[in-house]
Amino acid sequence: MGLQGVELIVLGYNTPSTNSQKPEEGPQKRQFHNRLTVQAGAYQNSTWSVAVAKGGTEDGHHMIAGSMIVNPDGEIVSEAKTENDELIFADCDLDATIFGKQTIFDFARHRRIEHYGRITSQTGAIPPAE
Fold first, then answer.
1. How far apart are CA 66 and CA 60, in angstroms?
2. Count of Cβ atoms closer than 10 Å to residue 1 Cβ
3. How distant, in Å, are the alpha carbons of 115, 118, 127 from that of 124?
4. Pairing with 120, which of 3, 74, 80, 90 sits 20 to 30 Å away (CA)?
5. What pairing do the DSSP bridges indicate for beta strands 8-13 and 48-53?
6. Which domains are seen in the chain, by residue range?
7. DSSP character for 103?
8. Beta-carbon-side half-sphere exposure of residue 128 (alpha carbons within 13 Å)
């Protein structure tokens, strides 16, 4: 998305608050990973991210909730406080995306596709030869 000059990402999701494959993980860690991925994605693309999470119960599964708006520096500027219906908002200045795109994430200057052969030609992990 950063290569396309994205300024605002809006995504919706309905993630269960419990990991069925690792129930001991707990909802706190699920919420931590939720925030981490949205914040990192916003920062790495120098974009605003509006993440809209479903709360309540669906098909017998409790949903994570936790909608948030994250600025291009990866900071949460607005976040739902409960698992109930809430309206969150923020003033999203799209010009705030320019600095990161012209400096740290200036792909035209820093991206070197000649070094990407492995990640474009391989799927799965291949351990190094001994």
1. 19
2. 13
3. 18, 11, 10
4. 74
5. parallel
6. 2-121 (3.60.110.10)
7. T
8. 1
Query: How many residues make up the chain in this entry?
Result: 130
Q: Which residue has the tokens 């707990």?
A: 26
How far is 122 from 30, CA to CA, in rounded Å?
29
Q: How far apart are CA 91 and CA 74, in angstroms?
A: 15
Cα-based torsion angle of the residue sequence 84, 86, 90, 94 in order, rounded to the nearest 10 degrees: 80
Q: Strands of 1-130 (E only): list them.
A: 8-13, 48-53, 57-58, 61-62, 68-70, 76-79
pLDDT tens string, the chain, 130 residues long: the values are 888 999 999 999 988 888 889 988 888 898 999 999 999 999 999 999 999 999 999 999 889 999 999 999 999 999 999 888 899 999 999 999 999 999 999 989 988 999 989 889 999 998 988 8
Between the alpha carbon of residue 7 and those of residues 86, 89, 93, the distances in Å are: 24, 17, 9
Retrieve residue 106's tokens: 């200036």
